[in-house]
Amino acid sequence: MKHYSGKSISALLAALMLLSSFAACGETADTPSPASTTAAQNADAPAAEETTAEPEIMTDVPADLDFGGKTIRVLSWETTSYNTQLIADQMNGEVLNDALYERTAKVEEMLGLKIAETRENQPTPIIQKLIAAGDDAYDIMFTVDRDALSIAQNGNILPITSLPYVDVTREYWSQSMNEDISMLNRLYFSYGDFNLSGYEGVNTLMFNKTMSNDFGLADHYDTILSGKWTLDLLGENMIKVVADLNGDGQFTDDDRYGLTSHPKQVLPCFWIASGLRSVEKDENDAPVFRMAENQKFATFWSKIFTMMYSDNVYHDSSHLPDYANNTVFMNGQALYNIVRVAFLHFYRDCDIDYGLIPYPKWDEAQEDYYSRFEGGSLMVVTDFAANKDMSGAFMEVMACESMKMVIPAYYDVVLKNKYARDERSVEMLDIIYGNRINDLGDTFWSNQIRDGVFAGKFAANKSDYESTIAKMQKSVDKALQKAIDLFSAIEG
């Protein structure tokens, strides 16, 4: 299994949780630097001269590179769905904010530059107009992933791998998602550790611990670590808890369910966890839509519809005032809840005792657990940008320093303020973030596949797999071929 940055998140979070427990007992402690955290963890170790310290991770950007106080101009996507903040304007005492501020100050000093961030909730039209005019107003521009694809395939966007100093093979760039979002063996985008949407967009499964115990279900954490957490076991667990609580013969928001979720989230979370992709890659790294010939996907489709729609197992949360803020789960009326990490803050103060776990494997033979990633913010740099050296060096150093300074703080905030109900959640984070999967039919081509067809099919309980795929084959093939042709033309 792949692990974040080649290190165990569990060890890092265990240290952070220890610090938070001190604070909970009335102690006052500043967030430690990586050096002080290491020292605390090794308090009982032999003297420093008797041990070999792990070398600090550094980039290959020359230490004497200095841009003489130039300003790097960044256009960011501001959205309420994710934390897409790149920099913090000032210190305010909040752990993540202050980590962003200190990281930014360090990067500015290291490279001899200043960062100016402009935040827009609709950056795509701005980017398109700037490109059409050949206007070099920003050095780096962010927008939602599917729009970034459209912008890139129409030309004037540099592959990130062609930028000076950028090395996307390093541990502070997501390797699993690099493989997913490359096009024709070219990587136009990548998720560096300065891009928090690469973490916020991961989906996780919440479970009601009290309900699990009351119904005598096997310990979820132990089951996951033993590799026995499967789709079949999920189905067995869910059906055990279903009940018409008020006895009126109808299933409404007043009753109890196996799982609650918006319908557009159910299929992709579980197909990705089962090792499936709606859009695959061929031998040329070109996207292909092969669901018609994918028997495992057909079997999955039938199984998940049957599982969710038998015996009132599934509760559709789309009618709730805010499906991300799922009151049915908060009220203790569902065993499981599908949730994006970005939305976990809604559950911070709810009364139920819950845990956080990865989605189940297809079967025990499947080696790893996979986590669905959706809808992140991707950056683009134009081929007419005047400061490509500065943009490349900035991205690389920002990614590296964010890995060391921001990501630990991000986990600390998520852990303590959103879902730190027990120490075993720490173990689960290592698994959840170990394999972030970006299915292009769920991101770049979500309008044609997930939202355009599959969400409606699941909401209506229409499990006609073969006819569904047959009807959409031509239009999806056309969309994919358009991208292939345009990217091929760019490469000449």
Description:
By secondary structure, the chain is an alpha/beta fold. The chain folds into three domains: 4-50, no CATH class; 70-200 and 376-417, Periplasmic binding protein-like II (D-Maltodextrin-Binding Protein, domain 2, 3-Layer(aba) Sandwich), CATH 3.40.190.10; 203-372 and 425-491, D-Maltodextrin-Binding Protein, domain 2 (3-Layer(aba) Sandwich), CATH 3.40.190. Helices cover 41% and strands 12% of the residues. It has 17 helices and 13 strands. It has helices at 9-24, 34-41, 95-111, 123-133, 145-153, 175-181, 197-200, 209-214, 220-225, 231-241, 263-273, 295-309, 327-330, 388-419, 424-432, 450-459, 465-491, and strands spanning 70-77, 113-120, 140-144, 203-208, 257-261, 280-281, 287-288, 314-316, 334-340, 354-357, 371-372, 377-380, 436-437. The strands form four sheets. It has a five-stranded mixed sheet. Strands 2-1-3-12 form a four-stranded mixed sheet, with helices on both faces. Strands 6-7 form a two-stranded antiparallel sheet. α3 (95-111) links the parallel β1 and β2 (113-120). α1 (9-24) packs across α14 (388-419), α1 packs antiparallel against α15 (424-432) and α3 packs antiparallel against α14. It is globular, with a radius of gyration of 23 Å.
List keywords for this structure.
single chain, 492 residues, alpha/beta, D-Maltodextrin-Binding Protein, domain 2, 3 domains, five-stranded mixed β-sheet, four-stranded mixed β-sheet, 17 helices, 13 strands, 41% helix, 12% strand, globular, disordered N terminus
